[in-house]
Specification:
The protein is an alpha+beta fold and 109 residues long. The chain has one domain (2-102): Dimeric alpha+beta barrel (Alpha-Beta Plaits, 2-Layer Sandwich), CATH 3.30.70. 37% of the residues lie in helices and 28% in strands. The protein is built from four helices and five strands. It has helices spanning 14-25, 29-37, 64-72, 75-84; strands spanning 2-10, 40-48, 51-58, 88-89, 101-102. Strands 1, 2, 3, 4 and 5 form a five-stranded antiparallel beta sheet that branches. The protein is globular and about 40 Å long. The two termini are 17 Å apart. One of its GO terms (molecular function) is racemase and epimerase activity, acting on carbohydrates and derivatives. It comes from Flagellimonas olearia. This is L-rhamnose mutarotase.
C-alpha cells in the first residue's frame, strides 16, 4: 500500500477552524463514498494551529488524476469542496487552483 502526505492551511480564525472541524465530524456519505471508490483505503487529517496534514494510504488502483477527474464530475463533491474552501487557504507556495500539496518525505525509521 502506498502512502501520501499532504498539507493545507486553514483560515487563521478560531471560529472558522472550529466550523471546519465540526464538518469533519459528520462528513457527507457521498464524500466518503467518493474517497473509498477512488482507491483510498485510509485517510487521516491532523491539525496544528491552522495547518492541516492529511495522510492517505491507497491501493494500486489510486491515481491523483483519476481522483481529480471523478471529483470534477461529481456535483456533491464539488458542493463539499466549495463549502470547505470557505475555511481553507492555499499554502504560500501553491499555484492558482491548488489546495492540498504533497509533502516530501525526509526521514523514515
Amino acid at each position: 500500500m502506498r502512502r501520501f502526505c499532504l498539507a493545507l492551511d486553514l483560515v487563521d480564525d478560531e471560529e472558522s477552524i472550529q466550523a471546519y472541524e465540526d464538518h469533519h465530524k459528520k462528513v457527507w456519505p457521498e464524500i466518503l463514498e467518493s474517497i473509498t471508490n477512488s482507491g483510498i483505503r485510509n485517510m487521516e487529517i491532523y491539525r496544528i494551529e491552522n495547518r492541516l496534514f492529511m495522510i492517505m494510504e491507497v491501493d494500486a488502483s489510486f491515481s491523483f488524476e483519476a481522483k481529480q477527474q471523478a471529483d470534477t464530475e461529481n456535483p456533491k463533491v464539488q458542493e463539499w469542496e466549495k463549502l470547505m474552501w470557505n475555511y481553507q487557504q492555499a499554502l504560500p507556495s501553491a499555484k492558482p487552483g491548488e489546495k492540498w500539496l504533497l509533502t516530501k518525505k525526509i526521514f523514515e525509521l
